[in-house]
C-alpha cells in the first residue's frame, strides 16, 4: 500500500429532491487496498459509489485522486481517471457472447469490421489472466451461471485497467463456489495495486478479503477500522448502531 491515498472523499453530500441521501461522507482508499463499504439498506453506499464513478454529481464536498481534486461530470470523466465500477444489476448483454460483452464498444477492428478472431483471443487471454473459466468465449452471456456472469462483468471492468475498482454487491445472488471465485478475483486485482471498494451484505466475505471497513449510516460515514480490529459481532453493532459505544448524536 502506498503512503498517499489513491482516493479521498471529503464531506460528500447529495440530495435527490427532498431526500438527502448523502449528508457528509468521508472515505479514503489506498493503492492495493480492499476497502469494505457497509451499511444498512438506504445508508447511501450505492449513491456514494455512483458519485465516485461519475454517474451521480454530488452537491458539496471534494473528490481527490492521487492528491489532485477532480470533478466528474459523467461516467466517461471517471473512466478517464481509471475508476471502474460493476453495478449491482450487471450491465451485460444477454444475447451477445462472452467476448463481445468484454469488448462492447471497443472491439478490435480490421478496417471497418470487428476482428472477431482477435477479439476472442484477447477475451480468452483476459479471462485466463483473472483465472476465470468459461467453456468458450463464444457462449452467450444469457446461458452462463450468475457467478460466470459476475466474473465476466468484473473482467470487463478490469480490462479497462482501472486504478480503482468498485464492486456493488457482487456476490449477492451467487452460489458458494461462485462467491469463492469472485473473492479470489478481488484478491488478484488488489495484488496488482488496484484499490478495490467492495459493497456487500455478506459480512463474512469482508473478513476474507478486506483490509479495512468503512461503515455508513443514514448518509454519513460513521466508522472506519482495519479489519484486524473487528469481528462480525462488532461490525453488526456498528452497522445498526446498537452497541453502547454508539450513542445517537444530536443532529
Ligand atoms: N435517483 C434517486 N432518486 C431519489 N432517491 C434516491 C435516488 N438514488 C438513491 N436514492 C435514495 O437515497 C438513499 C440511499 O440509497 P442508496 O445509495 O441506494 O443506499 P444503499 O446502497 O446503501 O442501500 C435511499 O433513501 C434511496 O431511496
Ligand atoms: Mg445499494
TrEMBL record:
InterPro entries: AAA+_ATPase (IPR003593), ABC_carbohydrate_import_ATPase (IPR050107), ABC_transporter-like_ATP-bd (IPR003439), ABC_transporter-like_CS (IPR017871), P-loop_NTPase (IPR027417). GO terms for molecular function: ATP binding. Coiled coil: none annotated. SUPFAM superfamilies: P-loop containing nucleoside triphosphate hydrolases. CDD domains: ABC_Carb_Monos_I. The keyword ATP-binding applies. The keyword ATP-binding applies. Residues 7-243 form the ABC transporter domain. Keywords: ATP-binding, Nucleotide-binding. PANTHER family: CARBOHYDRATE TRANSPORT ATP-BINDING PROTEIN MG119-RELATED (PTHR43790), SUGAR ABC TRANSPORTER ATP-BINDING PROTEIN (PTHR43790:SF8). This is Sugar ABC transporter ATP-binding protein.
Amino acid at each position: 500500500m502506498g503512503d498517499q491515498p489513491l482516493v479521498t472523499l471529503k464531506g460528500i453530500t447529495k440530495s435527490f429532491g427532498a431526500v438527502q441521501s448523502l449528508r457528509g461522507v468521508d472515505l479514503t482508499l489506498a493503492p492495493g487496498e480492499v476497502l469494505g463499504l457497509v451499511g444498512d439498506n438506504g445508508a447511501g453506499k450505492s449513491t456514494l459509489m455512483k458519485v465516485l464513478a461519475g454517474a451521480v454529481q454530488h452537491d458539496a464536498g471534494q473528490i481527490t485522486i492521487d492528491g489532485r481534486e477532480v470533478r466528474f461530470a459523467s461516467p466517461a470523466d471517471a473512466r478517464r481517471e481509471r475508476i471502474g465500477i460493476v453495478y449491482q444489476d450487471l450491465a451485460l448483454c444477454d444475447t451477445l457472447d462472452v467476448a463481445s460483452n468484454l469488448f462492447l464498444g471497443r472491439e478490435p477492428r480490421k478496417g471497418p469490421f470487428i476482428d472477431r478472431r482477435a477479439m476472442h483471443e484477447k477475451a480468452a487471454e483476459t479471462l485466463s489472466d483473472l483465472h476465470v473459466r468459461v467453456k468458450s468465449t463464444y457462449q452467450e452471456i444469457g446461458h452462463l451461471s450468475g457467478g460466470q456472469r459476475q466474473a465476466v462483468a468484473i473482467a470487463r471492468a478490469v480490462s479497462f485497467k482501472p486504478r480503482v475498482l468498485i464492486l456493488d454487491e457482487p456476490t449477492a445472488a451467487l452460489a458458494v463456489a461462485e462467491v469463492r471465485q469472485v473473492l479470489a478475483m478481488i484478491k488478484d486485482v488488489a495484488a496488482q495495486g488496484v484499490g478495490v471498494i467492495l459493497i456487500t451484505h455478506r459480512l463474512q466475505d469482508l473478513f476474507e478479503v478486506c483490509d479495512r471497513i468503512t461503515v455508513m449510516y443514514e448518509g454519513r460515514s460513521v466508522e472506519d477500522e482495519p479489519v484486524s480490529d473487528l469481528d462480525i459481532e462488532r461490525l453488526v453493532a456498528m452497522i445498526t448502531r446498537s452497541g453502547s459505544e454508539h450513542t445517537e448524536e444530536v443532529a
